[in-house]
Amino acid sequence: xxxxxxxxxxxxxxxxxxxxxxxxxxxxxxxxxxxxxxxxxxxxxxxxxxxxxxxxxxxxxxxxxxxxxxxxxxxxxxxxxxxxxxxxxxxxxxxxxxxxxxxxxxxxxxxxxxxxxxxxxxxxxxxxxxxxxxxxxxxxxxxxxxxxxxxxxxxxxxxxxxxxxxxxxxxxxxxxxxxxxxxxxxxxxxxxxxxxxxxxxxxxxxxxxxxxxxxxxxxxxxxxxxxxxxxxxxxxxxxxxxxxxxxxxxxxxxxxxxxxxxxxxxxx
Length: 268
What we know:
Elements (H helix, E strand, L loop, with lengths): L1 H23 L15 H21 L7 H27 L38 H8 L9 H5 L4 H4 L9 H26 L26 E7 L5 E7 L4 H20 L2
Antiparallel strand pairs: 1-2
C-alpha cells in the first residue's frame, strides 16, 4: 500500500511540475554563442545553471577514489564551465545587468596574498594530487619564503630612505665640502697638465696689421689696378682699385694653414 502511495505522490509531483512548466511557457535553451541571447533574464538563468553544474562537479572531484582519468575529465569540465561562466557574465554586463566580475571573490594563496591569476588552467580537489600536478605545485612554491613582495618592500621606506634627514646631524655638509675641494683641485691639476702638453698652434698672420714705419696710405705692397674716369668738372681722375683675393685664393690659404697646424702637431 505504501508503495502505491509513493508512486501516486511521484506521479502527482510530476504532474504538478508539468503544469508549472506549462504556466511559465516554453523555456529557451542555452545557445552555444552568448551573443545570440538578447534577454537579460535568460542570460541570468543560463549563468545560474552553469554555476550549479560547476558546483556539483567541484563537489564530485573531491573524491580521490574516482581514478586518474575520471579526475582529469572532471577537472577539464570544470575549467570549461568556468570559462563559459565568464563569457555569460560578460554578456550580462553588455545587456545592462550586474557586473559579477567586479564583486567576484579573489583568489588568495596560503598566507592570504592575492595571486592575481584569474585566468589559465586550474586544478581542483583531488586533481591537485595527480602525477605531474603535484610536482608543478611544488615548483611554483619553491623559494616562496625568499621572495619579496612590493608590500614588504614598502614597509621599510621612510624619510631616511629618500635622504630627507641626512643634513639633520650637521655632519654631511662638511664632508661634502671636503670632497668638493678635492675634486676642484684635481680638475685644476688635470687642466694645467693638459694645457702644458698641448702644442702651440700657429696663429694666422694678420694681413691687415701695419708694420712699424708704414703708413695707412702706403699701399705699394698691395696689388692694385688703376682706372681713369672723367669727373663732373671735365677733368680726368685716376682711381686705384685694390684687388681682393678670390674664393680659390682664400681656400688655398686655409688649406696651407691647416697643413702647417697638422705638421706642427704630429711632427714636433
